[in-house]
Amino acid sequence: MNNENKKRNGFPKIRFGLIILLLGYLIFLLGVIPGLFGLDRSPVMGFVQIAVFLVGLAMICLGGYICLNSLWNGMEKTIAAEIGFRLVSTGYVIAVISGMADVFGFGTHTFPKVPYFGPLQGIGVIVAESIVVIGFILLIPLKQNELKSIHYQASIIDADS
Asked: Which of 57, 79, 126, 153 is 20 to 30 Å from 25 at the Cα level?
């Protein structure tokens, strides 16, 4: 198989990942701001809205991973990329735990009360989304020239010390 064929094979995966990502973003918006779609029925964010935006966030994570994974296009992934994938997964798990804290029984509104998305849960989800973003950044493949430049700069620093 020649290199030209290998490079061309990644584009359908990138398109598929982008479609999943954009659909996830729309579902995420539907959960976070239902009034944008004319579906706002409550002044508070309840269980259904939380579940919907978490499903949207899952699709965003999946689509982003598919896109960024296809950019590697057969190359061996670096340790940073492997850590990035794990950070995306960990960030999503933290978002689910933070968002569904009341449902799981360790939030401020436990079972007899109606689940409510409070400020502490919001902070937890924002931190989780930040972890997902850091994971995506680590998944971005660097070109060989950039890697050689980084390695060269590191060797200069080592030689000076």
From this structure: 79
**Closest by Cα among 84, 82, 77, 89 to 142:** 77
Question: Quick one: three-class SS letters along the chain?
Answer: CCHHHHHHCHHHHHHHHHHHHHHHHHHHHHHHCHHHHCCCCCCCCCHHHHHHHHHHHHHHHHHHHHHHHHHHCCCCCCHHHHHHHHHHHHHHHHHHHHHCHHHHCCCCCCCCCCCCCCHHHHHHHHHHHHHHHHHHHHHCCCCHHHHHHHHHHHHHHHHHC
The model carries a pTM of 0.80
**What's the pLDDT at 151?**
56
Average pLDDT, the chain: 84
Which tokens in the block code for residue 98? 């933070």
Matching residue, tokens 């964010």: 45
Give the closest residue to 63 by CA, choosing from 5, 126, 132. 132
Query: How far apart are alpha carbons 122 and 7 in whole angstroms?
Result: 41
